[in-house]
Amino acid sequence: MPTTEEITAAQDSLRDLFFALAFDPDGVEAAAQADAALDALDELLAADAS
């Protein structure tokens, strides 16, 4: 079960990457990182719900 700190860190990371995409919407690397961060957050939230 993930800790609150792990979930908060994943949320913060995802937020930061979305801001990066706002400044560079064509940024392939930022988009890939945001996608991976979203997957990681989904996994943490799924584990938290179990």
Helical segment count: 2
Largest sheet: none
How many separate structural domains?
1
Order of helices and strands: HH
- Give the number of DSSP strands: 0
Structural class: mainly alpha
What proportion of the residues is helical, as a percent range?
Answer: over 70%
**CA gyration radius, whole angstroms:** 12 Å
- Tell me, briefly, the overall form: elongated
- Beta percentage is under 5%
- Unreliable runs: none
First-last Cα distance: 8 Å
pLDDT averaged residue by residue = 92
Structure overview:
The chain is mainly α and 50 residues long. It has one domain. The chain has two helices and no strands. It is elongated. The N and C termini lie close together (8 Å).
Q: Tags for this entry?
A:
mainly alpha; 2 helices
List the helices and strands and how they pair.
Layout: H1 4-23, H2 28-49
Q: What's this, in brief?
A:
The chain has 50 residues and is mostly helical. The protein has two helices and no strands. Helix content is 84%, strand content 0%.
